[in-house]
């Protein structure tokens, strides 16, 4: 964990499928202190219909909950806040633009939709922040409202999994009317069998490992079994609890000690999933961590600001795996970033980083194909498990890589994805100037905005020395004619 200056404060807001959770934390040296926590039981996943549209009533309930968190967030710098959306918002992403825009307006900061694998990584980071013991094999399990994450780790994560089973989703599917067991149908057993089917081929995740659970479902079960305390869950105890719940007729009849009323509607579904994990992975004891994804987000944020940004490691690993030509990356990167500095002298660091990452990955697809390397590279970036990146960040990088040359494909813009033409132009020009993989100076070249258009001014002597590049630049001028900000090439 990188060093922080004393008393730095961060806020993490997790927009989960079951509940929204806020954490305000402070670093004092290497130690993180939780200053304030808050949560709202929203059950966002309950509001998704068959077409993954978000129910307006649930949406308004969620937005009302966000109003409560705003006073905490508005006191912090923007780069000390991270708001993430998980399974329900991943599923609703195509139809949730209005909700996300309203949420951003309320909170004053963007909402990042993250993949299930990134969710698992952040959960691991958070749980490990509370582990003082030396590294050893561990299996970390988080049951959320819409998905369940499992991590197998020792010193670092070895395998991350995100499964489509959660307490809200399973409540809606198996316990919609509140009935648990009646006549020949036992919904608890059906939910449990369905969860076990999802866990096939994952038995190794907990083999010879310390098992640690986190999240609301795990803590709720722990309290019921341990007299209201959050303590280890033992196999015999959860077996007995599962039998008791399965024997009940209706959720309303559950008379369980220390079961909070707001947890009651999803408790049977969450227990069915947790018991299925115990059975299928042959777990005898599960420790319960007080930390989870929110603590992971805070540590990730601190890392970004103090030299430990996981995204740099991810890009570097992808470059190594796919044998990206580093000299060409350097050439294109130096030129593109200098052009961006000419165009926007006060360009935000976030944009410069995005351009640099896109250039580092722009030839990713060359490892597998030459004719379609742009399309393949963009596909790999968009669908890869890229630790540290949100889904919209990956979409931005994929768009830049896909459009590094040739006709500029018009994107389908949506919340979190509004491509920046300045970055695209600088990337494309950098690729053109070094198309033959040669070193070239930018002396005699100037890029600027002139009204609604871009103006690229190039000295005639420079063009005469590189006739093939001159032709490519004139072709580039044509490609931008249909864009909102056309390009004008001026030879002087």
UniProtKB/TrEMBL annotation:
Keywords: Hydrolase. The keyword Hydrolase applies. InterPro entries: ATPase_NBD, GppA/Ppx_hydrolase, Ppx_GppA_C, Ppx_GppA_N, PyroPPase_GppA_Ppx. The keyword Hydrolase applies. SUPFAM superfamilies: Actin-like ATPase domain, HD-domain/PDEase-like. Residues 29-302 form the Ppx/GppA phosphatase N-terminal domain. Residues 311-476 form the Ppx/GppA phosphatase C-terminal domain. Transmembrane segments: none annotated. It comes from the Bacteria. Pfam families: Ppx-GppA, Ppx-GppA_III. PANTHER family: EXOPOLYPHOSPHATASE, RETROGRADE REGULATION PROTEIN 2. This is Ppx/GppA family phosphatase. It comes from Microbulbifer spongiae.
